[in-house]
Design goal:
about 350 residues; 3 domains; 12 strands; about 30% helix; alpha-1,2-mannosyltransferase activity; golgi apparatus
């Protein structure tokens, strides 16, 4: 927190204030609900930490759709005909919340535009859904975090909201003709990309390295040294011998999971192509696949979209290099590296 406060002072952003969260229940997705509910702003645009606008988004507050309803939401990849969260016409959630089935896209809450004055009652209900003591919604896997809680609260109270009518595009990378979508691209009311939600491959500012069991390797090395020095002697290494090996191992960074980028920034470049839904196509044909693109991508990497670009005629492909925000990822990766370096400096300082 002190690092953020220092940055705000250095950059001359004196109007930024920080408020401590004292509710120990406000963890995970509930932290978002808590922040919005307790915000000092009357009208707010909330963005997840891994979500960035490709241009100044303040024009959203002047939209007719926002002025008329006081709430603008964005769609998720999923809808009743294709959902990984089991939200469809037969889902128990509708009966449990006592609201009629809504045949619409699920909500993606990485960005939320809300007039808190106009929708205080809805926010009370969102807070109830998120913090209800029995945690039924989450335990029964009826919803995923806070994702759909906002639209459910608005639907429950029959309050209008504007859902962006353009389904999200997918930004990702192509390796050997294999595409892996790792970022959700959300649009404005005119269908232009406005937000890039990097929720499947987050920035860290440090190189990702393969997991390794340093302690087991330290014991193995220390044991091998004992056997080499005195074959008939002591078999089990002492604690200090293992610690010496462990220190030597940790001094050498492990193997990186991705090849280093030419610009030297640790995070990988993952925005090379943008896959978008054709506007003249029926929304029922909007189908996003989930898959693993091994060996081109790590087995642990979740991919979204279509592995074979051009396979689905309902989507079209653009190179990010040809788009107005082509240089954005480089800047973000640089910021992430600077943040990681600042954090390390703070940890290393006495």
């Amino acid at each position: 927190m002190k690092t953020l406060q220092d940055l705000a002072r250095v950059d001359g952003m004196g109007d930024i204030s920080f408020h401590e969260v004292t509710d120990f229940h406000a963890m995970g997705f509930r932290a978002k609900v808590h922040a919005i509910y307790n915000s000092h702003f009357d009208r707010l645009l909330f963005l997840d930490a891994d979500n960035v606008p490709v241009r100044d988004p303040t024009f959203l507050f002047d939209l007719k759709e926002f002025k008329d309803t006081g709430a603008v939401f964005w769609p998720d990849f999923w809808h009743p005909l294709n959902s990984i969260f089991n939200i469809h016409s037969q889902s128990l959630i509708w009966e449990l919340l006592d609201i009629p089935f809504a045949n619409m896209f699920e909500q993606e809450s990485g960005q939320l535009l809300v007039d808190r004055r106009k929708h205080a009652a809805r926010l009370e209900l969102v807070r109830h859904y998120a913090f209800q003591r029995l945690d039924i919604l989450d335990r029964m896997k009826l919803v995923h975090g806070d994702k759909d809680l906002f639209r459910f609260a608005w639907l429950k109270q029959l309050s209008p909201f504007h859902m962006i009518r353009y389904p999200p595009a997918v930004a990702g990378k192509v390796i050997n003709e294999s595409f892996c979508g790792m970022t959700m691209a959300q649009h404005d009311t005119e269908g232009n990309v406005l937000f890039l939600h990097r929720n499947s491959n987050k920035l860290s500012g440090v190189a990702r390295r393969a997991d390794r069991d340093n302690m087991a390797e330290a014991v193995r090395r220390a044991t091998a040294k004992l056997a080499s020095k005195n074959p008939g002697g002591r078999k089990t290494p002492k604690f200090k011998e293992v610690q010496a090996e462990l220190k030597a191992i940790e001094a050498v960074p492990g193997k990186t999971l991705e090849a280093p980028e030419l610009d030297g920034f640790p995070d990988p470049v993952i925005w090379t192509h943008l896959v978008s839904f054709k506007r003249a196509t029926r929304l029922a044909h909007y189908v996003i696949e989930t898959y693993n693109a091994d060996p081109e991508f790590s087995k642990e990497q979740n991919c979204y979209g279509q592995r074979e670009l051009g396979k689905n005629p309902n989507f079209y492909v653009q190179k990010v290099a040809d788009l107005s925000f082509s240089g954005l990822e480089t800047e973000l990766r640089r910021y992430a590296m600077e943040a990681a370096n600042r954090r390390q400096e703070k940890l290393s300082s006495p």
